Amino acid sequence: FSQNAFIFEPDKDYDDYIDLAGGYTDNADKSNVYVLKANGTAIRVKKIKNVESGDTIVVPEKFERIAWMRNIKDITQILYQIAVTAGIIIVAF
Asked: Using CA atoms, how far apart are residues 62 and 51, in angstroms rounded to an integer?
């Protein structure tokens, strides 16, 4: 819920730090959480054994795979433009 910095405690894992930040939001992508190590590498939390001092835990947002609203908007715009063009042609001739 909140981006923050916490004092490193060796007995805590990444979930403990996420809880300190307020936990996951509804649109958090829990399956793709990763840790940015202090040396610049990024590691998925499934492959990491422990969080170290200087690491950054990143919880990305879930992205909707199908942008159905955008598709509907595009289709209705196309149909509207066809209708306007057809109307102009009918009135002109």
From this structure: 23
Strands (E), 1-74: 34-36, 42-44, 56-58
The reported pLDDT for the residue numbered 65 is 66
- pTM exceeding 0.85: no
Bridge partners for 43 per DSSP:
35
Give the model confidence (pLDDT) of 63-80 as tens digits.
776 677 888 999 999 999
The SS3 assignment for 89 reads: helix
Greatest distance between any 2 Cα atoms in the chain: 81
Q: Please count the other Cβ atoms lying within 10 Å of the Cβ belonging to residue 20.
A: 14
Give the CA angle between residues 63, 69, 75 to the nearest 5°. Answer: 135
Q: Is 92 helix (H, G, I), strand (E, B) or coil?
A: helix
